[in-house]
Amino acid sequence: MDGKEKLHIAMFPWLAYGHIMPFLEVSKFLARKGHRISYISTPKNISRLPKLPAHLSSNISFIEISLPQVHGLPPGVESTAEIPIQKIPYLKKAYASWKSL
């Protein structure tokens, strides 16, 4: 790569705000360099993100995908903030099941 090639990068953070927000910051950094970003998460998590500055909104696309329902995970849960720690394994299982979609 000659350093001028622009990339299309998929960002797929773990469903915890300690991951979601830093991934957004990395996305913004990369978008400022001219790269296209597809930021993939659940509808609730995307709706909670702060608005992008206008100059970055053309380089960052938000892709909403629904979290598959997994036995043991309460309905509507989309992040670690919504469940007690003992339910995290169910959220991990739902997150991992996206790979098979």
UniProtKB/TrEMBL annotation:
Biological process terms in GO annotation: carbohydrate derivative metabolic process
GO MF, any single term: UDP-glycosyltransferase activity
Protein name: UDP-Glycosyltransferase superfamily protein, putative
